[in-house]
Amino acid sequence: MSELVTGEAVALELRPARLPSRALAVLLDLVAAVAVYVAVTIALVAATASLDEAAQTAISIALFVLVLVGGPILVETLSHGRSLGKMACGLRVVRDDGGPIRFRHALVRGLIGVIEILMTLGVVACIASLVSARGRRLGDVFAGTLVVRERVPVGQAGFVPPPPPWLAGRFSGLDLSAVPDGLWLAVRQYLTRMGQLDPQVGWSMAERLAADLAERTGAPVPPGVPPAAYLAAVVQERQAREVRRAFEHGPAGGGGPAGPAGSAGACAPPVYPAAAVVPDVRPAAYPSADPGAVVRAPQEGPSADRPSTGFAPPA
Prior knowledge:
Number of strands: 6
Oligomer: single chain
Strand content: 5-15%
């Protein structure tokens, strides 16, 4: 990934295109340009058969410049950096700040491309692309542009595992207003990927995140609760509060508890039955610091002897 900073000081993470994909895109563009050049040349030869040799030579040179040089410049300008080959390979030419290119950018890239691609058979462009950290050729350097990948492989959507049932509703009194969004994002990323981490590394990361979260909330982690389970329970508590807030201030504009039945514009928060049971869709084992051991939920008595929390996870 390459970080580009826009004019508004916003950092963009883009994936620069490397030499193989760029070479394939250039090859496709050249094939299309040569096909157009041959077709137009045949038509002009038939139309200018009565002209002298000098006029035919001048027309041939002008046709070469217009099709093989002006054509790519015009296509990149009108398509904002997406030629036929780049569209086929999922690439796009952008400015150094991530914005769309203009005519001057395409003009500089096209003129220098005649030297480093057409005249040298792409040798100079390949060397420059291999040397550059972002895979840029000389035309990109002088024009202030970058070729990036538009089609990025989509990874598997992360699933935040719910906490075990014995932690449901236990952190309803925490003050989560001081937790920054960056910490929530870090906790969510850890929960979605903790199954891919080494057990010891994952345990240490969970301890650090749990300590940071406890410092922000002002309440320590309860003893005997695994850090990963604590993080999952706090994240679910935050999601439950957001759901309740969304229902209380719904699109109907109720803004508060529901009034009598049949009142217009009222939107009531969901009512959970007292006997609601939290489904355990995830194994009750969380990773521990010992690779050969797991931390399991404490054993409790029959479910009939336990008071219900009245909590149900949001759909």
